[in-house]
Structure formats: structure tokens, C-alpha cells
From TrEMBL:
<dbReference type="Pfam" id="PF00685">
    <property type="entry name" value="Sulfotransfer_1"/>
</dbReference>
<dbReference type="InterPro" id="IPR027417">
    <property type="entry name" value="P-loop_NTPase"/>
</dbReference>
<keyword id="KW-0808">Transferase</keyword>
<dbReference type="GO" id="GO:0008146">
    <property type="term" value="F:sulfotransferase activity"/>
</dbReference>
<comment type="similarity">
    <text>Belongs to the sulfotransferase 1 family.</text>
</comment>
<feature type="domain" description="Sulfotransferase">
    <location>
        <begin position="49"/>
        <end position="308"/>
    </location>
</feature>
<protein>
    <recommendedName>
        <fullName>Sulfotransferase</fullName>
        <ecNumber>2.8.2.-</ecNumber>
    </recommendedName>
</protein>
<dbReference type="InterPro" id="IPR000863">
    <property type="entry name" value="Sulfotransferase_dom"/>
</dbReference>
Length: 311
């Protein structure tokens, strides 16, 4: 049987946002490291009915959503001063399917039902789709997501002394659908359509709406994943405590998120602070020209046409 590397070497490829090629696997673009992880997970990952799978395209808000979901699920185990989110990046509290769980699920903490992935809906391991586990998906205005993505790459490459491509070049690739786990619109639509078909299984969230009234979405999220807040908890302010603990302002100033590193000692090591940039809606205005914004909006309108979804 061909190895994963051999299969990947036969896939369509092109230059991505770095010096390395990215490959088109099952309709989405990704680099070899992650495709290999996706292939392994597709082959061996077995989901449990109690699992809660946090899904997203990159740079749409999973750092925040993981924190909120982890805080909801662990609120009776830890108090405000002992929650692991205060001393760990949220990505270290929630295993990532195509990296941490690709080889085997045996390293999972049996008390933690959470896992996360960027894999598009149609490429998720079969057991996630077929089992009764819950999926929570977050998406974001593609203009902000693109800018966040680009600046994330710039910061990563700078930390490795590599030169990033120009914003205009990355923008052109993004518009063509060439971004990590992209085309972005296909990613969002896959989960959107599935959420309409299976509203009990998939909760579809938007970063902007969550920023508008986080407490409402924390309650909604807790109900959906089967960890609802009791009347007494609501009365004593448990929802607001989680909102505040997981706010950009709070998490970004924690020592671990200022000086810590994610996946230290691996080829994909990242400084935690790179995950916290501005956390604002509409920051694209500081980076995209009106013409670029109009182009992205028009692609979004065209791609989402008839779906009932607006971004
Ligand atoms: P910006 O780059 O626009 O600031 P990711 O997909 O890695 O989670 O990041 C997406 C965006 O979420 C980034 O946006 C990041 O700054 C922002 N973010 C990180 N933590 C957040 C939080 N606690 N609340 C709101 N936004 C957050």
C-alpha cells in the first residue's frame, strides 16, 4: 500500500503563502504536515458520543471558542484561580485532531471531551460524522479572517527569519481559494449546510455575533453541548465570570500567553503571543484597500448565494 507521503506526492500542488508547496487534498489546500495528520486521523480516529468537536477554518476564532468551551465544561472542577486556562494556552487544553490525535486517541484525557480541528466537514473522520458527538463551528468575516491569517503568517515567518510574501500576493491566492484548509467559503458552507441538516449535532457560530453579546452565546453553547447553566449559576454570575476570564483582554495579558510557546520542540512551534493580535471586528479596514474589500465581498456574495448564510 502506498504511504501517506507517496499519496501526497501525487496530489495537485502549487506554491502557497510560504516557500513550501501546498497540496490539494479532497478539495482543500494544506501543507504536507497537516495533510498527513488528516489522513492518519481519517484512518484511525474513533470518536466517542460524549465528544465535543470544535471546528473552524484557521484564523476565525478557535483560540477564543476553545477557551470558552473548556471553561464551560470544567467550571465545576476548577475555580476562578485554578482554571488551566490561566496557565496554559487554550490550544494546549484542547487536543488538535490532525496533530495530537492523528496517531492514536490513547493519549486523550478521559475527563476532557473536547477536541479541535480545521478539517472541512466532508473530510472529517467518519466516526465524527456518524457518532452522536457534538460539533461547534465558528466562522468570521473573510476580510478579517484573511487579514488575521496574513499577519499570523508574517509573525510566524519573522520568528523563523523567513521573508513573508506581500499582502497583495497572499490576497490574490486567498481570492483564488488558496489558503490553509481553503477555499475559505467552501469550508464555511460545508458546515453551514450540515448545520441546517443536523441542527442538533452542529452549532454554527459567527465571531462577530459572539463579540456583540458573548454571554448569550456562552449560555447557548453550554446548552448545546449538554453543560447548561443552572438558575443558581446564572444568578451568581457564572456566565459573566467565564466571559471575562476568556476575554481577549484577560487572556492576552497572562504570562503564559505573553512568553509561552505552543508545541515547543516540534517543527510547528509557535509563540503563544502570536495567537493574540487585536481581537477586533473590522480591523481589515486598516489593511485592505476599498477595492480589495469590494472584491472579497463580491466573491463572498457569489459563493454564498442561495445558501441563506451571510458573512
Ligand atoms: P485578529 O488577528 O484579528 O486579532 P484564531 O483563529 O487563531 O483563534 O485567531 C483569530 C482571531 O481571534 C485573532 O484575531 C485573535 O487575535 C483573536 N482572538 C484570540 N483570542 C481571543 C479572545 N479571547 N477573544 C476574542 N478574540 C480573540
Amino acid at each position: 500500500m502506498a504511504s501517506f507521503k507517496e499519496i501526497i506526492s501525487t496530489l495537485p500542488r502549487r506554491k502557497g503563502w510560504t516557500d513550501y508547496d501546498i497540496f490539494l487534498y479532497q478539495g482543500f489546500w494544506c501543507d504536507t504536515f497537516f495533510i498527513e495528520g488528516v489522513m492518519r486521523a481519517q484512518q484511525s480516529f474513533r470518536s466517542q458520543p460524549s465528544d465535543i468537536v470544535i471546528c473552524s477554518a484557521p484564523k476565525t476564532g478557535p483560540t477564543w471558542l476553545k477557551s470558552l468551551t473548556f471553561a464551560i465544561v470544567t467550571r465545576s472542577t476548577f475555580d476562578d484561580s485554578t482554571n488551566p486556562l490561566l496557565s496554559n494556552l487554550s490550544h494546549d487544553c484542547v487536543p488538535f485532531l490532525e496533530v495530537d490525535l492523528a496517531q492514536s486517541s490513547s493519549n486523550r484525557d478521559p475527563n476532557n471531551p473536547l477536541l479541535a480541528t480545521h478539517v472541512p466537514y466532508s473530510s472529517l473522520p467518519r466516526s465524527i460524522i456518524d457518532s452522536s458527538c457534538k460539533i461547534v463551528y465558528i466562522c468570521r468575516d473573510p476580510k478579517d479572517s484573511f487579514v488575521s491569517n496574513y499577519l499570523f503568517f508574517v509573525r510566524i515567518l519573522a520568528s523563523k527569519d523567513m521573508k513573508p510574501l506581500a499582502l497583495e500576493e497572499a490576497f490574490e491566492l486567498y481570492c483564488q481559494g488558496v489558503s490553509s484548509y481553503g477555499p475559505y467559503w467552501d469550508h464555511v458552507l460545508g458546515f453551514w449546510k450540515a448545520s441546517l441538516d443536523r441542527p442538533d449535532k452542529i452549532l454554527f457560530l459567527k465571531y462577530e455575533e459572539m463579540m456583540e453579546d458573548t454571554a448569550v452565546y456562552v449560555k447557548k453553547l453550554a446548552d448545546f453541548i449538554g453543560y447548561p447553566f443552572s438558575f443558581e449559576e446564572i444568578e451568581k454570575g457564572s456566565v459573566e465570570k467565564i466571559v471575562n476570564m476568556c476575554s481577549f483582554e484577560n487572556l492576552s495579558k497572562l504570562e503564559v500567553n505573553k512568553s509561552g510557546k505552543h508545541r515547543e520542540g516540534t517543527p510547528v512551534v509557535i509563540e503563544n503571543k502570536i495567537y493574540f493580535r487585536k481581537g477586533k471586528v473590522g480591523d481589515w479596514e486598516n489593511y485592505l484597500t476599498p477595492k480589495m474589500a469590494a472584491r472579497l465581498d463580491s466573491i463572498t456574495l457569489q459563493k454564498l448565494n442561495g445558501s441563506g448564510l451571510t458573512l
